[in-house]
Write a structure and sequence with these properties.
By secondary structure, the chain is α/β, with parallel strands linked by helices. Helix content is 48%, strand content 15%. It has a 4-stranded parallel β-sheet with strand order 5-4-6-7, sandwiched between helices. Helix 1 packs across helix 9. The mean pLDDT is 95.
Length: 242
C-alpha cells in the first residue's frame, strides 16, 4: 500500500502541529500498518521536499476543507519542486462526515444536537476562515445550506474570520432576526490558531461556542476515504491508457 502523505498548511502557533499529530494518531489507529507521513507547506517542519524523498510510493492528501489557492496551486507546485509525481487526493469538503464532526463539537459545547426540537430552535454560525477564491466561499455556503436542510437547524449563517464578508457578530444578529431562540458558533476550521481565536473572541454573545474540528474521528475517517479514492483512481488510470 502506498503511504498516506498528509499535507497540512502549517502555523507559527504550536497548537496547530500538535493537532495535526493527534489527527495522524487517529488515522493510524483506524488503519494499523499504513505508513502515514506529514509535511507542511509553511511555518512548520518537515516541509514536502524533506519527506517525499524517503517515500517509495505515496498518495498526497491535503488537510484542507475547500479547493482554494493552497489546493489549486501551492501543493501541486511544492510537489513539482520536490520532483514528486504523486497522486493528490481531493480536499476534505464537502462531506457528511464533516457535518458529523461539526455536530460532535457542538455537542461537546452543550448543544443537544440529537434533539430535533432543539435544532429547530437553534441558529448556527458556520465560521470559516474565508478566501479570496469565490468558488471556495461558495462551497462553504453550500455546506451551510446542506447542514440546515439535512438536520433541520433554525438557520445556518456563514461568517468569515478573514477576507471580506459577514463577521460572526453580523451572523449572530441575522440568526436572531430570523427568529432563532438560541445561537451557536461552529468553527469550520481544522486546528487552533489566530483565526479560531478571533472567532472565539467575536462569539461572546452566542449561547454556545464549539471547538475547531481538530482530531475528530470523523475527520480521520474522511482522510482515509480521500486517500482510498485517490489510490484507486491512480491504480485504474494506467489500465485505461494501456
Amino acid at each position: 500500500m502506498p503511504a498516506l502523505l498528509l499535507i497540512a498548511h502549517g502555523s507559527r502557533d504550536p497548537r496547530h502541529a500538535a493537532t495535526v499529530a493527534a489527527l495522524v494518531q487517529e488515522v493510524r489507529a483506524l488503519r494499523p500498518g499504513l505508513d502515514v507521513a506529514t509535511a507542511y507547506l509553511d511555518h512548520c517542519a518537515p516541509r514536502i521536499p524533506q519527506v517525499v524523498g524517503r517515500l517509495d510510493d505515496a498518495v498526497a492528501v491535503p488537510l484542507l476543507l475547500n479547493r482554494a489557492y493552497h489546493a489549486k496551486h501551492d501543493i501541486p507546485a511544492a510537489l513539482r519542486t520536490a520532483g514528486a509525481a504523486l497522486p493528490v487526493a481531493a480536499v476534505l469538503g464537502p462531506s457528511p462526515l464533516l457535518l458529523a464532526a461539526l455536530e460532535r463539537r457542538l455537542a461537546e459545547a452543550g448543544v443537544d444536537v440529537r434533539s430535533a426540537a432543539v435544532r429547530a430552535r437553534t441558529g448556527v454560525v458556520l465560521a470559516a476562515a474565508g478566501s479570496s477564491d469565490p468558488a471556495a466561499d461558495a462551497a462553504t455556503r453550500a455546506v451551510a445550506a446542506a447542514w440546515r436542510r439535512s438536520r433541520g437547524w433554525a438557520a445556518v449563517e456563514v461568517a468569515y474570520a478573514s477576507a471580506t464578508g459577514p463577521r460572526v457578530p453580523d451572523a449572530l444578529a441575522a440568526l436572531r432576526a430570523a427568529g432563532a431562540a438560541r445561537t451557536a458558533v461552529s468553527p469550520y476550521l481544522l486546528a487552533p490558531g489566530l483565526l479560531p481565536d478571533r472567532i472565539a473572541d467575536a462569539a461572546a454573545g452566542a449561547d454556545a461556542v464549539a471547538d475547531v474540528l481538530g482530531p475528530a474521528p470523523e475527520l480521520a475517517t474522511l482522510l482515509l476515504e480521500r486517500y482510498d479514492e485517490a489510490r484507486l483512481a491512480a491504480a485504474v488510470a494506467p489500465a485505461l491508457t494501456a
